[in-house]
Structures are given as C-alpha cells and as structure tokens.
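Need residues for this backbone.
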C-alpha cells in the first residue's frame, strides 16, 4: 500500500445552522460582490450547531485514506478540547496521528461557518496553532519513507517551513503536490515562488490564482508584462469559440488583465509539471506543458461548499498516484468534490475507493486545448 503524508492545517469547524443569512449584491466596475447582512443590535436565532473536524491537512488525509492509501498527517493543534476533538476524528478515519504536534501556548484553529440563503458561506477563521508549525516539528525521517507529499495551506509563520520540506523531498525523489491557501499566496508568495522548482503539482482556485498573480506583480515588475493581457478577450491564437470562461476572458485587477494561458506557462516555468485551477460551479482546468484539460462541474444540490477544494485536489493527486490518466484523475476529482458539497462538513461526503470506482467516468464533456 502506497504511503501519503499530508501537511498543513487542522481545525474544529463549527456550523451555525439557520434558515440562511440575507445578502446584498453590489455591482462595481467589472465585478459583482455579495455581502452578508447581519443587522446591528439583532439577536440572530440559530437552529442547530454542527461540529466537524476540518483544515486542509485533515480533510485531504481523510480523502487519501478512504481512497485506499496508508495516510498520516503533520499538523499543529492546541492542547485543548478542540484539539482532542480533531484527534478523535482522525482516529475514526484510521489516520496515523503520531506526527500531530501539540502546542502548549496556542489554541487549536477554529472556524465558524455561516451560510447565506443561497448556500454560499462566510467563515470566521481563527488560525491558532496552525500558524506556528516549525522546522523542528517536521519528521524528515518519516517524509523519506513516503510515496507522496500533499501540502495544504501553511499560514503565517508556518509558511517558512515550506522550502525546507520541498527541497528535502526533491533530494529524495518524492513527488510533492501543494494546495496553498489565500494567506500563503498573498503574504508568502515569494517563499512559494522560490519553492516551486521543487514542486510537481500546484492546485489553486480561481480567486487564489488571482491573489498569486497580484502578489507576483507587486513583488516583481517583470511579471506586470509577463502576465498582462489586453483588455480584449483575444488570449490565444486559436478561435475562442466555445472556450470555457477562464480561457476566454482575462482575470482583472485594477487596470491589469491577466491571461490564464500565460499564467499556466509562467507557473510551469517556475517548476511544477502540472498546474490546476478550480473555478467553482464553472469547472476545473488542468495544464501540463502541452495541453490544458477542462471539465465542467457536475450539477449538484449544493448544501455546503466548504472542503470542495480539498476533496478535489486530494482525489486528483490520489488518482495520479494510482496511475490513472490526467483526464480520468480530473473527472474523478470532480465526482468526489460533488459528493462533498452535497453534505454539511468537509469530510462526510468523501467517497471511498469502492464508491468512486463504481461511478461512471464520462469523457464526453472533457475539452482539450493546446498550450501554445
């Protein structure tokens, strides 16, 4: 059985369940933003409180385990009741917890989740111990005997351990996939950029890709020209007819328009062989040095989107590790993610290997584009 080690955040996720909070949509220049409305002075009734374990490291670990891998997890929690809750949930999944570090002065990360009427959600995130993972906490002897490293968000001070981890894995010929979070992409972009030469696969959602682009141009003037696109949508020499949204339209930041085609090329030039961008209900894009694969999302009765990225990314990497093709891995990841968002919590909807193998892999909606 192949061994997988996940690294990153652990949290206790607390859902404040009600009928759904009102929201307001404001249209600004070239964008539409939704705001959750909580009336000042009101006492808001909560129908139920739901508790789940969360965080990228534990969510992806549960996914890899259910997909048939010997899985362990490196993460930092507090020596508190929330930390005990996270440990108990990992033990229920039969995940190796010997590398979970307990902090004596920081509390376990906690997220408070509130849904809107449209089942979108806002999260109040307390990072806690997650932000204080140190080099001395990393068991490099364990990493050396692993078949796949899967790194999730390393927030705040924890982002500093990334170069040491990925350089060691590279020296020992261990494949690394990373799914960095927004704070890591914005505040630790230079560290991530310098680490990419040791990383095989990077997975981001479209907002995270935009955040990374913005961080790159703010720290390096050369990227302003490298990533910039024209205001028009002529992003590629091929016809744009029937192209998915991100391939046909630029991402915008202030007066800059970013070509996703150029972004794929530039990130792969930094090191990764595979770059993945998820775009919520619109679908998923996977690029290698020759092609971009696109598959739309599967129509699903969405209950909760928390954990969608973790479930897709872990399943995609697990499928590649199990020697499925890129196209199959892409579709399997979307199927797993669709199951997760149909239930509350990031873990209850995760599919087992047997459940996933029974799903029909339909290539009819898959599109391929040459990466010119």
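Answer:
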């Amino acid at each position: 059985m192949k061994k997988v080690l996940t690294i990153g955040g652990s949290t206790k996720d607390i859902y404040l369940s009600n009928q759904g909070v009102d929201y307001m949509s404001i249209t600004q220049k070239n964008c539409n933003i939704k705001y959750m409305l909580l009336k000042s002075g009101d006492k808001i009734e909560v129908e139920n409180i739901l508790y789940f374990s969360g965080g990228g490291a534990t969510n992806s670990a549960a996914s890899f385990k259910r997909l048939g891998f010997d899985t362990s997890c490196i993460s930092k929690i507090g020596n508190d009741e929330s930390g005990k809750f996270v440990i108990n949930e990992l033990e229920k999944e039969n995940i190796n917890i010997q590398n979970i570090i307990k902090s004596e002065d920081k509390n376990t990360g906690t997220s408070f989740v509130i849904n809107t009427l449209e089942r979108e959600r806002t999260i109040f995130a307390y990072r806690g111990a997650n932000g204080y993972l140190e080099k001395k906490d990393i068991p490099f002897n364990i990493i050396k005997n692993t078949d796949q490293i899967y790194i999730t968000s390393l927030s705040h001070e924890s982002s500093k351990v990334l170069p040491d981890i990925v350089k060691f894995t590279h020296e020992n010929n261990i494949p690394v996939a990373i799914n960095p979070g927004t704070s890591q992409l914005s505040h630790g972009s230079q560290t991530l950029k310098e680490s990419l030469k040791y990383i095989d696969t990077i997975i981001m959602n479209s907002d995270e890709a935009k955040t990374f682009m913005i961080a790159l141009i703010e720290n390096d003037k050369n990227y302003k020209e490298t990533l910039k696109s024209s205001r028009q949508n002529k992003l590629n020499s091929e016809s744009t007819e029937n192209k998915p949204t991100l391939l046909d339209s630029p991402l915008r930041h202030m007066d800059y328009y970013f070509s996703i085609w150029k972004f794929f090329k530039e990130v792969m030039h930094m090191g990764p062989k595979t770059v993945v961008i998820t775009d919520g209900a619109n679908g998923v894009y996977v690029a290698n040095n020759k092609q971009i694969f696109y598959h739309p999302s599967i129509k699903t009765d969405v209950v909760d989107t928390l954990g969608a990225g973790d479930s897709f990314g872990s399943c995609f990497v697990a499928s590649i590790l199990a020697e499925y093709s890129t196209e199959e891995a892409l579709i399997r990841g979307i199927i797993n993610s669709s199951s997760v968002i149909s239930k509350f919590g990031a873990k209850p909807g995760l599919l087992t290997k047997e459940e996933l193998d029974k799903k029909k892999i339909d290539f009819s909606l898959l599109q391929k584009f040459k990466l010119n």
